[in-house]
Structures are given as structure tokens and as C-alpha cells.
């Protein structure tokens, strides 16, 4: 407790509507021992000591209704793909359609579109350090956003893909759940600050380019202060699990490199803002 960076740093102003203040602090990004994740691109080692300034983060994922209002007001922003669109992964479950439930998470959008939607709100994409800091309950560094409980199916929307033989979290004591995203997300997938669906629902774009934690972006003198990887390359970082992912991807440390122009119904967005006295964007 005597280290100068050990104490949490509060937000100096009130959070904007729909957002939560995440007090700043220090934590260990990644893992000292790599878990069995879904692919080599999920590398989370070595861990790094990171300092994160306080910031605001959306309480929930950007919804279809919110995205529709933003694209209506800003026609220069490319609309997310609609159901069945070409060159989209899992297009049947794209949610941006006139008949869609507005509470569904918006998906099927490239990283640039996600960033533009946030910018239209005076916000930005979170960094992956901010995202993991929030998802792991800051200095508590819990394995899942809701804490230590390993019963992923009863906490997050994962393992609900469109498969011929329903499996995983779709099978319940009350019957088989329909595949695809869920309007409103899961109330049980919630951090101690009340941030929802960081474990499942849709995976989320962050601002960083993808590099392994042993590459240049992450090899500076520690603690790394508010790191952002801006390396050139086609891949950006996805954080969190989705309705079509295995439950292991609901872990707070899960990260993947995905081509930044890619669109998938497994991918959505939430926005962040710098934490200032006026709650201004940054």
C-alpha cells in the first residue's frame, strides 16, 4: 500500500449518461501462465505491469437503436451490415435491420465503423488495457467480469452459435435456447461497477493494433502508462467472448487479433471517454 500508484485514482467528474466511471490504478495485464484458449492469437503472456488513468466506459454494448440514431444523424458513417450481407462472417445473425429489436447489440461492423460511431458521441474505442482493467474488476484481477465463479453458461451469453446439433450453453433445464445474440444481454454478466456483457454477447473492438505481449508495443520500461499499440498491420484487437464463442473466451484476459476491416455477427462495440472534470471526450 505504500507504492505511489497503489491507491485508486477517482474520476474527477460525473459519468455521462449510460457510462460508468472506472477509477484508475495499476494492474497486471495478461497472465503469467497462459490458459488453454482457442487459438495461438489468444496469447496473453508475458504479463505486464500497467498504469491506467481513470476513464468512462459504456455500461453496455452499443445497441442497434443507438447505432441507428447515430447513422441517421451522421450519414457519412458506414452502416453496419444487415442480415445476410456478403463478405460477413455469420451474416444470418447481423442485427442492424429495420425490423430488429433495438435492444440487440449492434454487430457486423469493421473497426473503423466502430470508432466512427463512438466519435459521433464524442467518445472513442477503449484501449485494450482499459478494457481488461474494467473486465477484471481492476486491481482485483478476477478471472471473469462477474468474479471467480466458473459457471460461465449461467453468467454470460456464450456457446449459443447456430449449429445443427445444439450444444454448450444453449441446452438448459428448461429446454434449448435459440441461437444468436440476445436483446439486453445477460444481467449476470456484470462487473462490480455494473458494466455489462464484457464476458459474452458480442466480442468488442478496441483501439489497439494486435501484437503479442512479447513484441515491441509491450516491451517498454514498466510500469507501462496508458499503453496503446499503434503498430502498422492489418490486425486489430478483439476483446471478450461472443454468443458463438467457447466459454473460455469469457475470461477477462481474452484477446484476439482480427483483420480490422472484417465484419462478423460475433463482433460489436462499446465506447470509452477520457475522465475529466467536464466528462469531455478523449
Task: Describe this structure in a few short sentences.
With 282 residues, this protein is mainly beta. The protein has three helices and twelve strands. It has a four-stranded mixed β-sheet with strand order 10-9-7-11. A three-stranded antiparallel β-sheet has the order 1-4-12, with no helix packed on it.
Any overview of this molecule?
The chain has helices at residues 64-73, 111-120, 128-135, and strands at residues 19-22, 25-29, 48-52, 55-58, 171-172, 175-176, 203-209, 224-225, 235-239, 255-259, 267-268, 272-274. The two termini are 30 Å apart. The strands form four sheets. The protein has a four-stranded mixed β-sheet with strand order 10-9-7-11. A three-stranded antiparallel β-sheet has the order 1-4-12, with no helix packed on it. Strands 2-3-8 form a three-stranded mixed β-sheet, with helices on one face. The chain is mostly beta strands and 282 residues long. It is built from three helices and twelve strands. Residues 37-41 have low confidence and may be disordered.
Q: What is the topology?
A:
Elements: E1 19-22, E2 25-29, E3 48-52, E4 55-58, H1 64-73, H2 111-120, H3 128-135, E5 171-172, E6 175-176, E7 203-209, E8 224-225, E9 235-239, E10 255-259, E11 267-268, E12 272-274
Parallel strand pairs: 3-8, 7-11
Antiparallel strand pairs: 1-4, 2-3, 4-12, 5-6, 7-9, 9-10
